[in-house]
Amino acid sequence: MADPGKMNDAKLFCPVSGLNATWEETRTLQRLLWQPLVMNNTPAPNNSRRSFLKLLPLGVLAGVFASLGGAAFRFLRPRISVATDAWLDVAPLSELTGPQPLSRKIVAEQITGWAVATEEHSVFVLPAKNNQVLSAVCPHEGCEVVWEQNRNRFSCPCHESYFAADGGRISGPAPRGLDPLPMRVQGGKLQVQYVSKEQSTRA
Amino acid sequence: MTDREHTIDRIWFLRATGGVVLVVLLVQFLTGVLLAFYYVPSVDHAYTTVSYIERVVSSGSWIRSLHHYGSQWLTLFVFLHIIQLFLTRAYASRRIQWIAAVLVLGLVMAAGGTGYSLPWDARAFFSTRIAEGLVGGLPGVGRIARLWLLGGSEISTLTLSRFFALHVLLTPAAIVAVVVWRLFRTRVCWPNLVRHAIVAGLVFIALALWCWKHPAPLGPSVADMTAEYLPRPGSQFLWLYQSLKYLPGGLGSIAGLVLPGIALVILVLLPWLKSQRLIGGSILAACVLLVGVMTTASYLSDRRDQRTRQQLSRQAAQEEAARREPFRPVPVRLVADTANTGPAEPPVLYTKFCANCHGQHGEGGRQGPLRFPPLLGVSAKPHRTVDDIVSLLQKPDSYGLQPPMRSFSDKLTEQQMREIAAWIVRL
After folding, report:
1. Does one domain contain both A8 and A36?
2. CB distance A114–B195 less than 8 Å?
3. What is the span of the domain harbouring residue A180?
4. Which of B79, B214, B287, B379 could bridge to B425 as Cys pair (CB 3.0-4.6 Å)?
């Protein structure tokens, strides 16, 4: 709209309203709408008022995005999953004998959002080390380690970390040995609390 | 311009409906995307995830309410937009805008219709039933159309997935295509945009405040629904709901789908028709009249009848109470069930009486032209608990089943039926 004078009689076509209006009609409307908002009643230079009005549609759009965006941030904020601190049965003490680490499964419940997930976790019991219980999760990237009986070591199938029979780190990218879990003996049974430790690549 | 058009031109808020439609559409898209971050479209989790959004997630209630009431406001403003276009004879001079507006109205109604099923609460249950009935009653194609809409012969988790895909993928894509086509084929002028922006901004603020005060309704889950539950659709469908009360069964599809469809097609074709003002005017006037009268009648009949009023306020109180109850997460098994590895062997009596048709392990079968439905996963369907299956085996016709399925009352005792049913629901 370079020169309003030239446009006086031309009908401007607006696609959003689907209406034609002359420049004069549009100006009248603007004046009606904006007169009370302009502090100084003497007409402001056309340019600055028009550039202010030009920003208004963008302002409304920004307002919609801002209010929804604020809500979206709260809405999408991640939820920390809550592990139940229940004591989980591993095995009766009478089963836990011999020099080798014994592989056992424990079933733990974890509340994540709307779901209570029942997950199975692998652990190793070390009868030789006073029944210490190790999580089978490799502290490097969280793969499950396996016990290699013939070489007397744990090995991680993902990135070749190796751990001794007592869980200590031998070699490979793992930052530390296998993580021990809190344990106790109750009623002749070995019990643990399942705690998920941070892996080194996430730490 | 005639004098009349000049008058319309002066009613400035009527000239700004386009911007409102655009902004409310934007709100629908944004809130829809957000809801999809939590929603799971399956019969065992849909209700849980929606009530999780409603009761646990921050701002979840507001966002869902925006989406719920936004769809109703959107329908209203698209309709006002069409009226405005009609009064300014857009069908003759600005065809693209006219056609786009009519198409958007149809699509918005379709989105509303499919969206009501998604929470899988009591309302959704009835809404899906109505959709099933309307589509199934279409002359000629009804039977096939119903099967394709439901994804099977019964409303099931497949139906929910279909409604989900229609609601979040197909309809929005079509709406975007129409709106983009319309916006890019026409020029934008800033002075008009300012007016649109002001009105749209005010409407957005009003919608936001309304939704802040009024959370979207969420009925009881289908499992907790009692027989006296009174379903009510969203306000954009009240006219249809009320009309269906007055019409004999067979005419429902005509009134609910065929006539609105024909009206939309005529309105889309209006630019190429003769006596446009008469045809378009009578269709729009009929719509205003029908929607106005029926919506009012629906409100009035709900208020007048005392038992209805009491039941509705009881339901509202129950919803309010449910909203305040703490949310209880539902179990999800990520490990193989050690207690029950794989389905057990079928009971002997199943093999003897049922397996011939429904397969050795409930996989279904066919003999010549006859097809027998599989029993796998049948317990996910409504009305297929152990008790239901037992009474179904006694009286199949009361469950809408037809021959060759027959009653087994003379062959099996109730105890034996119960044994078979207990095995079937675990499939």
Report:
1. yes
2. no
3. 82-192
4. B379
Distance from CA of A71 to the nearest CA of B (A): 6
Q: Are residues A130 and A49 in the same domain?
A: no
Residue contact A1–B38, C-beta within 8 A: no
| Rounded-to-integer distance, Cα B100 and Cα B19, Å | 14
Q: How far apart are CA A64 and CA B243, in angstroms?
A: 37
Please indicate, yes or no, whether residues B39 and B118 belong to a single structural domain of this protein: yes
Residue B405: its pLDDT value, please? 80
Q: Which residue among B26, B204, B330 places its CB closest to the CB of A114?
A: B330
Is residue B59 a contact partner of residue A77, using CB atoms and an 8 Å limit? no
B19/A71 CB distance under 8 A: no
Of B64, B62, B79, B68, residue with least CA distance to B20: B79
C-alpha count within 13 angstroms, C-beta hemisphere, residue B131: 27
Beta strands in B81-216 (DSSP E): none
Q: How far apart are CA A162 and CA A178, in angstroms?
A: 10
Predicted TM-score (pTM) of the model is 0.73
Task: Mark yes or no for CB contact B22/A16 under 8 Å.
Answer: yes
Query: Is there a single domain that holds both residue A57 and residue A92?
Result: no
One domain, residues B13 and B129: yes
Residues B420 and B305 in one domain: no
- Whichever domain contains B242, its CATH number is 1.20.810.10
Question: Do A132 and A87 share a structural domain?
Answer: yes
Biggest CA pair distance of chain B: 85
Residues B282, B392 within the same domain: no
- Evaluate whether residue B339 is within a structural domain: no
Q: Is B15 on the interface with A (CB under 8 A)?
A: yes
> Does residue B402 belong to any structural domain of this protein?
yes
Question: Does the pLDDT of residue B295 top 80, yes or no?
Answer: yes
Q: Are strands B330-333 and A115-126 parallel, antiparallel or unpaired?
A: parallel
Whether A89 and A72 share a structural domain: no
Same-domain status, A153 and A186: yes
Distance CA B92, CA B277 (A): 10
Give the three-class secondary structure for B410. Answer: coil
Interface test with B, best of A7, A11, A13, A14 (most B CBs within 10 A): A14
**Among A76, A101, A117, where does a domain finish?**
A76
Closest-CA residue of chain B to A113 = B329
| Contact (CB, 8 A) for B271 and B98 | yes
Mean of pLDDT values over B338-344: 51
Q: What is the mean pLDDT of residues A136-141?
A: 88
Say if CB B88 and CB B5 are below 8 A apart: yes
Strand partners, A192: A88, A183
pLDDT digits (tens, 9 = 90+) for B47-87: 999 999 999 999 999 999 999 999 999 999 999 999 999 99
Dist CA B373 CA B359 (whole Å): 9
Please check whether residues B205 and B252 belong to one and the same domain: yes
Contact A30, A50 (CB under 8 A): no
Q: Where residue B410 sits, what CATH number does that domain have? A: 1.10.760.10
pLDDT confidence of residue A26? 63
Its ipTM equals: 0.72
Task: Number of A to B CB contacts under 8 A, please give it.
Answer: 157
Whose tokens are 């405005």? That residue is B84
Q: What is the mean pLDDT of residues A37-63?
A: 67
Q: How many domains does chain A have?
A: 2
